[in-house]
Amino acid sequence: MGIKVLIVEDEAKIASLMESFLQTEGYDCLTATDGKSALQLYTKHKPDIVILDWMLPQLNGLDTCRRLRQLGSPGIIMVTAKSEETDKIVGLEMGADDYLTKPFSLRELSARIRSLLRRMNRNAGDGTGSVLRRGDLTIHEESLQVFKGDVELHLTPTEFKLLHLLASKPGRVYTRMQPLQHAFEEEFIVDERTVDSHISKLRKKIEEGGRSSDYIQTVYGFGYRFGAEHED
């Protein structure tokens, strides 16, 4: 089975171009023209990557992204004509892993997919993935799964890498930029507001009420650390 890519784009010509190109790159492609159809296809086929247009009929891209995050943990690349920094941050806050602004080249799209797959699968299949246990959190490096007690938490690939980095060295203080630079590497430009957005969403998923004093702690004026009291 190859990597499955779900293309969600209401402009038929653009969708057809992306589908044809990605098929030549070896991906198995599915196409939806609106958000509701995209959710149905995701539920049925569980694609690995979703290329998601911002402006969609019936259910817009942001709401579709949010609902996809409730269903699972695909890699999501938002595609939009909106180029403002605030728009990019909103997309990331809704759960997108990367962001492409129209017009873009198909080669750039392919490069973004490969980059996202590396972030998602870096440790998969090598048989050496570790398991971190921090308080009632269990973090499986190889399968990219996180459990709080017996309940699985659905994290984005970026959120997983942030959590794994912080939890790997409880008590170590990271600057605000270090964790997200680790998660995105050098392939995506980030700023401190993007860091704060991802940390905030991660906290809400792993901490009741999103309290900053529990697992992920803020070191004011510097950055973040994972609470050393949770180290087993």
Describe the protein.
With 232 residues, the protein is α/β, with parallel strands linked by helices. 41% of the residues lie in helices and 22% in strands. It is built from eight helices and twelve strands. A five-stranded parallel β-sheet has the order 2-1-3-4-5, with helices on both faces. A four-stranded antiparallel β-sheet has the order 6-7-8-9, covered by helices on one side. Strands 10-12-11 form a three-stranded antiparallel β-sheet, with no helix packed on it. β11 (216-219) and β12 (223-226) form a beta hairpin. α6 crosses α8. The longest helix has 16 residues, at 106-121. The chain is globular and about 55 Å long. The termini are far apart.
Number of E strands? 12
> What pattern of helices and strands is seen along the backbone?
EHEHEHEHEHEEEEHEHHEE
Find the structural class using helix and strand composition.
alpha/beta
Radius of gyration: 18 Å
For the largest sheet, list the strands in their spatial order. 2-1-3-4-5
Mean pLDDT: 81
Strand residues, percent: 15-25%
Give me the number of helical elements.
8
Shape: globular
Parts with pLDDT < 50 across at least 5 consecutive residues:
123-128
Fold blueprint:
Elements: E1 4-8, H1 12-24, E2 28-32, H2 35-45, E3 49-53, H3 61-71, E4 75-80, H4 85-93, E5 98-101, H5 106-121, E6 131-134, E7 137-140, E8 145-148, E9 151-153, H6 157-168, E10 174-175, H7 178-184, H8 192-206, E11 216-219, E12 223-226
Parallel strand pairs: 1-2, 1-3, 3-4, 4-5
Antiparallel strand pairs: 6-7, 7-8, 8-9, 10-12, 11-12
Helix pairs in contact: 2-3, 6-7, 6-8
